[in-house]
Specification:
Helix content is 66%, strand content 2%. By secondary structure, the chain is mainly alpha-helical. The chain starts with 30 loop residues before the first helix and ends in a 6-residue tail after the last helix.
Length: 557
């Protein structure tokens, strides 16, 4: 057994390995792999920034002296996402344009992957830096500078860490008029969306949606009233009007665009016309999800909070469901061999098996699931903590997908790791703002005894078993492992500090999380074992969970 083997070097025949500090092989061998990796990191950064500015602070463009300038900054995120989607589609449809990615990143990259990752993390830190202001609305300049410069660093690191800038610019020269048209649509996507906002109404479809929503609500206990003319639905004392924008036509257009693009790009591998069945399946699913979305919005407004329904669920549920439907539909296509030609179907299962055994994916994908589950909870619940039991199955599925990777880790430990963890837990409790203050009602207050017991049990599973594995795999196994390529003892110190800072950004108790990150990094570096850091993190969370359960102060967690 090698004490300093890398997670990326897990041999299929190996039973136990040590997750060692950080050889260069942690990065994928080709530019395509590095591009996919940095794309994932960018996605995680965008989720962190969106959640931070939407939920951790109360930020409304109407509070600024120049609301239009604030909206322009916000629209920049839409332009960036549209450009990223365009690049992803091009990589699938016109692979030959990206031939420079066939070589390894070390040969082709303008920056080494480790340096590029450091630049991207610096970009995330800069994007979150304006949150430290006491009053963000006092001046728009820090917000604009932080988001703009941070996004430029993150995108620049991803681009230059994958290939030289000249290679990327060559795509513009060789892409042709269709590429330029796509770039134009992506860059002006917010304006196009605003222009078409009034074009999504179709009275017959709105009427069918109205009737279907009534049918769904009729299945639920409560007082249901409605006025067919203005299409007003009342559930208990909460009323909404099903307007033209609720028809679902926009969802039809979006899912048609995604499905058509997927079929067009994969037309040489798909079995046509059989694969065209994806289009009606997507439309039916889009219509059904739109009906469910409106019904759930009304139910939330009546039974939980009108503010949650209007200001949170209404703003995010549509895009969240569209994203999940798009991913699900394309995933279903890839997992259905009958839709593919013989040579494509023959290899359809091998990429899935390889993906489950890929240590880089194992260290990052569960973290993405963790972040997305938090976003979903914040979208659907006024008090997201009460929704924690719903997040646990998602986190479990994200981690369990990579059981072949976890099974090859060396899970043996000594007393040092858990003892350090208990110390971290005690420190976390001691500095918690919730300690000594008024104890808020428990998240499961008002539930029956059985429901409260289930909440506590699932909170234990998530806090003590799942979160330590997911976070340590991402921040110590992957991030710290890569940063350890910085030269010399100073490089190791910098690696520990940077990875701990990134870890702290993910937690509300930033300073305490930073110290915890340093402690877990020290445990990881001591023997080069990822499992040691997981055990230490689990012990810390167990100490905090025990204190919260004993005192009834669940805000300690």
């Amino acid at each position: 057994m090698r004490r300093h083997a890398s997670p990326a070097n897990l041999a299929p025949e190996g039973r136990a390995i040590a997750a060692g500090p950080a050889p260069a092989s942690l990065f994928p061998a080709t530019g395509w792999g590095v591009a996919a990796l940095f794309g994932t990191v960018l996605f995680v950064e965008l989720v962190v920034v969106a959640v931070s500015y939407q939920f951790l602070i109360d930020l409304d463009c109407g509070d600024f002296g120049s609301p239009q300038a604030c909206l322009a900054i916000r629209d920049g995120l839409g332009r960036l996402l549209s450009l990223a989607m365009l690049v992803g589609l091009l990589m699938t449809a016109r692979r030959q344009l990206f031939g420079f990615l066939d070589a390894g990143p070390a040969q082709n990259g303008g920056l080494s992957p480790g340096t590029a990752l450091g630049v991207m993390l610096a970009g995330l830190a800069v994007m979150l830096l304006p949150m430290m202001q006491r009053d963000l609305t006092a001046s728009l300049a820090p917000l604009a500078l932080g988001l703009g410069l941070g996004a430029a660093l993150s995108v620049g690191g991803a681009v230059l860490g994958t290939a030289p800038l000249a290679s990327w610019l060559s795509i513009l020269r060789r892409g042709g008029p269709w590429l330029w048209l796509g770039l134009g649509l992506a860059l002006f996507s917010p304006e196009l969306t605003a222009l078409l906002n009034g074009a999504w109404g179709w009275r017959p479809l709105t009427a069918v949606t109205f009737d279907m929503v009534l049918g769904v609500l009729a299945l639920l206990p409560g007082e249901l009233t409605f006025e067919p003319g203005p299409m007003i639905i009342g559930f208990d004392d909460f009323f909404v009007r099903v307007g033209d924008a609720c028809s679902g036509l926009q969802g039809f257009a979006l899912i048609t665009l995604v499905t058509t693009a997927f079929i067009a790009f994969e037309r040489h591998r798909l079995r046509l016309p059989l694969a065209l069945i994806l289009l009606p399946l997507g439309l039916l699913a889009s219509f059904a999800l739109n009906v469910v979305r409106i019904a759930v919005l009304i139910w939330i407004g009546a039974r939980i909070s009108p503010d949650l329904a209007v200001n949170a669920f209404h703003s995010y549920a549509g895009w969240l469901l569209f994203t999940l439907l798009s991913i699900g539909l394309i995933g279903l296509a890839h997992l259905t061999p009958v839709l593919w030609r013989t040579e494509a179907a023959a290899t359809s299962t091998r990429p899935v098996a390889a993906f489950r055994r890929d240590p880089v994916s194992a260290m990052l994908v569960p973290l993405v699931v963790l972040l997305l589950s938090g976003l979903v909870a914040s979208t659907f619940f006024m008090t997201p903590e009460s929704a924690y039991p719903y997040r646990v199955p998602a986190m479990f599925a994200g981690a369990a997908l990579f059981c072949p990777v976890w099974a090859r880790l060396d899970w043996r430990t000594d007393m040092v790791a858990p003892l350090v963890g208990v110390g971290v837990g005690i420190l976390w409790i001691a500095v918690s703002p919730a300690l000594g203050g008024p104890v808020d009602a428990a998240p499961f207050a008002g539930m029956g005894l059985a429901a409260a017991a289930i909440w506590i049990a699932l909170r234990f599973v998530g806090t003590v078993l799942l979160v330590p594995l997911i976070e340590e795999a991402a921040f110590r196994g992957y991030l710290l492992g890569h940063l350890l390529k910085l030269p010399g003892p100073a490089g190791r110190v910098a690696a520990a500090i940077l990875s701990s800072a990134a870890f702290a950004f993910l937690h509300a108790s930033g300073p305490a999380a930073f110290v915890a990150g340093l402690a877990f990094a020290a445990v990881y570096l001591r023997r080069g074992r990822l499992a040691d850091a997981v055990w230490s993190h689990a012990a810390a969370n167990l100490a905090v969970f025990a204190a919260a359960a004993a005192s009834g102060n669940w805000a300690l967690i």
